[in-house]
Amino acid sequence: MDRGVSPLACRRSSSETPKVSEYRYFEFQAIDRPLSKKEIAELRSYSTRARITPTSFVNEYSWGNFKGDADVWMDKYFDGFLYIVNWVHAF
Fold first, then answer.
1. What is the rounded average pLDDT of the residues 2-18?
2. Contact 30/56 with Cβ under 8 angstroms?
3. Taking the domains of the chain in order of start, what are their residue ranges?
4. CB 11 within 8 A of CB 5
5. Is the pLDDT of residue 76 over 70?
6. Which end of the chain has fewer CB atoms within 10 angstroms, the N or the C?
7. CA 58 to CA 52: how far, in whole Å?
8. Which residues lie across from 45 on neighbouring strands?
9. How far apart are CA 56 and CA 28, in angstroms?
10. Segment (H or E) for 27
């Protein structure tokens, strides 16, 4: 399969350190009941960038990390959880 890049172009010297990037997507869904204003405020304290509604919390990270505890959040606030991660290694 030709990907347009020579295998030799992908080689790195032993002194190079690979760079790692990652993308993380977190989505929580409340199905049985909507979140209260107090609960939404509690969730907002974990992220200023997240999209938070009475039925969901969605956040994407390229740098940094999720500051909550998914297990606790599932017990306390939500009924469903989706987590997607994509690791990219570049030399």
1. 46
2. yes
3. 17-85
4. no
5. yes
6. N
7. 6
8. none
9. 5
10. strand 19-29
What average pLDDT does this structure show over 74-86? 95
CB 63 within 8 A of CB 24: no
Q: Residue 58 in contact with residue 27, Cβ under 8 Å?
A: yes
CB-based contacts of 71, cutoff 8 Å, min separation 6: none
- The Cα–Cα gap between 3 and 5 comes to 6
pTM score, whole prediction: 0.72
Least confident range from 10-14, 33-37, 86-90: namely 10-14
What token pair was written down for 43? 């969730």
**Type of residue found at 51:** R
End-to-end alpha carbon distance in the chain: 21
pLDDT tens-digit readout, 17-74: 555 568 899 999 999 999 999 999 999 999 999 999 999 999 998 877 889 999 999 9
Q: Could you tell me the two tokens for 68?
A: 């909550």
